[in-house]
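Comment thread on ticket #2218

A.B. wrote:
> Attaching the input chain for the structure job we discussed in standup.
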Amino acid sequence: MSGDEAGPYVGIGDVVTRVEARCPVCMVEGAFNYVDLLYDAPYYGKVLISVGRCGSCGYRFFDILYADAGEPVRYTYLVEDLIDVARTMIIRSKTGAIHSPDLGFSLEPGPYAEPFITTLEGFLYRVVDYAERLMVTNEEARDRVGQFIEGVHRILEAGSTFRIVVEDPEGKSIIVPPPGREWKLTKETIKTSGED
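C.D. wrote:
> Ran it. Output below, let me know if you need it in another format.
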């Protein structure tokens, strides 16, 4: 597409598709403007960014699909102090799972999982948010979840030694340790459930 046809998307990525269509919500013909952009994103590789907006009812659509797949991978990082907590980056794709066998939690991707990039500290606060919601909805697990939250808060305040593991069948998720601490990160290719 030429620069004029790409409109506000010039410089973001290559416009693959641009369509004016019927809005899936209000059904007004030609009101839904939809664009697919091919973009080379750091850590994720080539991604297809889909953006849509209805000029009639205001409905918005956004999605990211991976245009190329990597190898199924597992990263394990040994966290030992507050520098690791504050400066380790967690980059999770839509297909990435994060867990800690030492802390006793697992965050598995669901059908609407969103990718994110955050520090380990930010991720632990996210885990606490999820656990607090679980306390409200699961009366039987309240004491156990409360103890888990207290343990995570102790880590955030004073540090502790634990392992954090990221697994991704598409190979798009990663742990990025602080500079000079790369030796504490292990990477292994894993088999997916369909492989022998």
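A.B. wrote:
> Thanks. Noting for the ticket: The chain has four helices and twelve strands.
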